[in-house]
Amino acid sequence: MTHELPALPFAENALEPFYSARTISFHYGKHHKTYVDNLNKLVAGTELEGKSLEEVIAAAAGNPAKAGLFNNAAQIWNHTFFWHCMKPGGGGKPTGKIAQMIDEAFGSFDAFATQFKAAAVGRFGSGWAWLVLENGKLKITSTPNAEMPVPPGQKALLTVDVWEHAYYLDYQNRRPDFVQTFIDKLIDWDFVAKNLD
Ligand code: MN3
Fold this sequence. Notes:
Radius of gyration: 17 Å
Number of domains: 2
CATH superfamily of the largest domain: Iron/manganese superoxide dismutase, C-terminal domain
CATH architecture of the largest domain: 3-Layer(bab) Sandwich
Number of strands: 3
Number of helices: 8
Distance between the termini: 29 Å
Bound molecules: manganese (III) ion
């Protein structure tokens, strides 16, 4: 089994004007694809050849000797998850159970948005901000580089990529503007709600 670049859940220009086709073509077509190509090279001829992406991540996580494998495999997972966190016409306040859980955990949607943005903006260097489910409760977290909240008992519900390649073409150095736009215009709350189940 060879790892493949998963299809985008929307057309490359579907998130314009908030996230450009140019950004997607580089971010998905070059960065995400490169992680897939690298992983295929790294597993070739090893005991991890033919294993699923999740199996590779589990086998490489926390092992410094397998850092290259983990980084590429986790970045494939993170990016595929990130694309599904966005949709045309998305963003703003959710409704239903996830809205109620956000109010319970953070006090209000605005408080959630403020904390999520702070986690994303405050992540020094490259990484990800996440909304996760931990022991049945919502929590905001962030991870450096390729790291993901999946191994330590947290279930990922939502993420935003804050590597510079995620926003530089559209927002240059203005990471806060990108994250605010992600919250206001891009989040697919239906996907987030589905991850609760
Ligand atoms: Mn990225």
